[in-house]
Amino acid sequence: MHIITSRAELAQLVTQWHKENERIGVVPTMGALHNGHLTLVNALDGKVSRRIVTIFVNPIQFNNAEDFRLYPRGVDKDAALLADTGKVDVLYAPNENEMYPQGFSTRVLVSGLDGMLCGGDRPGHFDGVATIVTKLLLQTGADVAAFGEKDYQQLCIIRRLAADLNLPVEILPVPTVREADGLALSSRNRRLTTEQRTQAATLPAALTACLGALRAHQPAPPALAQCRATLEQAGFTVHYLELRAESDLHLTQAATPGTRLFVAASLGDIRLIDNMPV
12-28, pLDDT tens digit by residue? Predict the structure, then answer.
């Protein structure tokens, strides 16, 4: 596995691969890798002949400077984890100056999908996500890019930008990977204290119970209210808990196939998100 930090070196390699008719897969990450990221790497099996994993903690998608500062980092450990898979050809780990050189002033805005859910209380977040993902898709020359369904709103935005900008890349969705107690894998989980980690298991349990009520034809408002109360009693601050359509994320009260339950909730200053399909 090669570790590349410059756009020029990556471009040279990608150009050569394209000349050799290689199919390139990419897994964009912010590092602090876990089994969820490795699942994205494995999801490319049979679809590509070369794989790139990118690591870049993107400053323009953080609207909280302290969250950016505390975001877990450890490229050496991440590189060892990727090398052990035997599947990754390149770890691309550019620095901030490489991605945003002096004078950089462009933003990619996907309107209509960015103003609700995480976009509602994290203004500018998805502009930052859309901008960096566009740059990474172009820089890696990817034919296939794998993204996890845990960040479902992000997945929808990336699908939309790829379609709207005519980017020649397949966006591959990968189901959420969970711990034994149901908690969705996230790099932020590392920041949870032992007590918070125990509390965190309430999140997927409450969502599962809410979905059970909805599938039993309980009206959405009381089912959501009970779920919110359960989370608050467990110590969470609930930012949103909503039922939305998978297709365009419009708000709904109809728990039908093609809808998902979305939540963002914090324990202390650690924000966790999750979603589950009806």
Answer: 999 999 999 999 999 99
Residue 120 sits in the same domain as residue 257? no
Instruction: Catalytic residue, from 2, 37, 125, 217: name it.
Output: 37
Identity of the amino acid at 226: Q
Q: Is residue 278 a part of any domain in this protein?
A: no
In contact, 83 and 41? CB cutoff 8 Å: no
Q: What's this model's pTM, rounded to 2 decimal places? A: 0.95
In this structure, are 111 and 29 located in the same domain? yes
196 has binding-site annotation? no
Instruction: Check the annotation: does 218 bind a ligand.
Output: no
Exposure pattern of 12-24 as b/e (b: 16+ CB <10 Å)?
ebbeebeeeeebb
The answer to whether the CB of 48 falls within 8 A of the CB of 23 is: yes
37 an active-site residue? yes
What's the CATH number where 217 sits? 3.30.1300.10
188 is in an annotated binding site: yes
